[in-house]
Design goal:
It contains five helices and five strands, in the order βββααααββα. By secondary structure, the chain is an alpha+beta fold.
């Protein structure tokens, strides 16, 4: 999931960054502005694509490309867990689903969907037959 969704699918992303300070390093508990330190570097500028479409695409592509080579070794017919040893921790943590099921780390999405679907504004009402 690539998003700037505060407290959304990436639990550790609790706020959006800005164009003036686009990066922060987080260990899942605290975040420090910049790109240095232990943890994950997060860029969560919520309007980045509108601001820098070409630059954003180039930089994102450069960051993603090393992991694409790993993913090419994936066998879709084999559960991810059976082949996880082939991938870096980054790639393992990025895999949301395998063989039609959410991976354990992302099973909370099922609950979020159910909660969303049960909200009154999301319920559909069938029109009566005339």
């Amino acid at each position: 999931d690539i998003s700037a969704d505060e407290s959304g699918s990436l639990e550790f992303m609790t706020r959006c960054t800005s164009m003036d300070s686009p990066f922060e390093v987080t260990d899942g508990i605290k975040a420090v502005p910049g790109i240095l330190g232990d943890g994950v570097v997060v860029a969560s500028v919520d309007n980045l694509p509108a601001q820098l479409p070409r630059e954003a695409t180039d930089i994102f592509g450069e960051q993603l490309l090393p992991y694409v080579w790993e993913m090419l070794h994936s066998m879709a017919e084999v559960p991810f867990e059976s082949q996880a040893h082939l991938f870096s921790r980054t790639t393992q943590d990025a895999a949301i689903a395998s063989n039609g099921k959410l991976r354990p780390k992302f099973e909370y999405i099922t609950k979020l969907r159910a909660e969303r679907d049960n909200k009154p504004e999301n319920l559909t009402v069938e029109a009566p037959e005339l």
